[in-house]
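We recall that each integer encodes one residue's backbone shape. We quote one record:
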Amino acid sequence: MTRLHALLTCGLVAVLLASATGPAIAAGGGGGGGGSSAPAQGEETRRRMITPSQTYMPLPPLTATVQANHRARGLLQIEAGLEIADPELRRRAERYLPRLRNAWVSGLSAYTGMSYRFGDVPDADRIAQILQEATDITLGEEGAEVLIGMVIIHAD
């Protein structure tokens, strides 16, 4: 078992344990506002198209906490997308999106915890490699290319 695969597996266990409170929060519980929730947005307004390409799948922003001196110092944010030519693989990627997101965030957390030194410029090539490996492992095959649009550190 590779180190990345072990980290991804540990991340999945952490997410499953943390998801016990997810339904209450998603249902509007715990907010204390008492008001009605915002109206649901349509699929078209929620997903803005960056390109007319039918093979490009934009992803929601990915984030990981940046630590230094045993405390949170900032946030790593990645804007990315997947280029998938095979329609069957694209459908699988859409179905596996929660698993993919977990694998990506676990990989990014490992990067910020072990490889990244606060104050340095993030290594976009290494980040792309981490995200690509996580994608290939989660989908079980190659064919979904990770494309990075932005890598930024938000410092506290």
Q: What stands out?
A: Residues 3-16+55-155 form a domain with the Tetrahydropterin Synthase; Chain A fold (CATH 3.30.479).
